[in-house]
């Protein structure tokens, strides 16, 4: 899997289909949390997982792709 930087919008799309996120953040929440601080949003080349890193982070992987090391690869890259 290749990992790339991407937008909050792409990460939000994945969070909306990730079961653990019963009420995923809207883009304005990420913008507020990341305003003025270093942050990084990552997504896999096949968009099945994401990671948004800042002081407090959330990450998620679509259920059918879990236990394949996606979150681990995203964390390592970050």
Describe the structure.
It is a single chain. A 4-stranded antiparallel β-sheet has the order 1-2-3-4, sandwiched between helices. It starts with a strand and ends with a helix. With 78 residues, the chain is an alpha+beta fold. The chain has one domain: Aminopeptidase (3-Layer(aba) Sandwich), CATH 3.40.630. 31% of the residues lie in helices and 22% in strands. The model has no long low-confidence stretch (mean pLDDT 85). The chain is built from 3 helices and 4 strands.
Give a quick rundown of the structure.
With 78 residues, the chain is of the alpha+beta class. The chain has three helices and four strands; from the N terminus they run E-H-H-E-E-E-H.
CATH hierarchy: architecture: 3-Layer(aba) Sandwich
Q: Span from first to last CA?
A: 14 Å
Model regions low in confidence, pLDDT < 50 over at least 5 residues? none
Biggest sheet descriptor: 4 strands, antiparallel
Structural class: alpha+beta
Which fold name corresponds to the CATH topology? Aminopeptidase
H and E string? EHHEEEH
Radius of gyration: 12 Å
**Number of helical elements:** 3
Q: Output mean pLDDT.
A: 85
Percentage of residues in helical conformation: 25-40%
**Content of β-strand:** 15-25%
Q: In the CATH hierarchy, what is the superfamily? A: Gcn5-related N-acetyltransferase (GNAT)
Strand order of the largest sheet: 1-2-3-4
- The total domain count is 1
Number of DSSP strands? 4
- The CATH first-level class comes to Alpha Beta
- What is the overall silhouette? globular
Q: What is the fold's blueprint, element by element?
A:
Layout: E1 3-5, H1 8-15, H2 27-34, E2 40-44, E3 49-53, E4 58-61, H3 70-77
């Amino acid at each position: 899997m290749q990992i790339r930087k991407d937008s909050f919008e792409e990460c939000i799309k994945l969070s909306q289909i990730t079961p653990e996120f019963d009420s995923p953040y809207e883009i304005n929440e990420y913008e507020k949390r990341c305003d003025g601080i270093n942050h990084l949003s990552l997504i896999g080349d096949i968009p099945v997982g994401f990671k948004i890193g800042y002081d407090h982070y959330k990450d998620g992987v679509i259920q059918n792709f879990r236990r394949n090391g996606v979150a681990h690869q995203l964390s390592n890259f970050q």
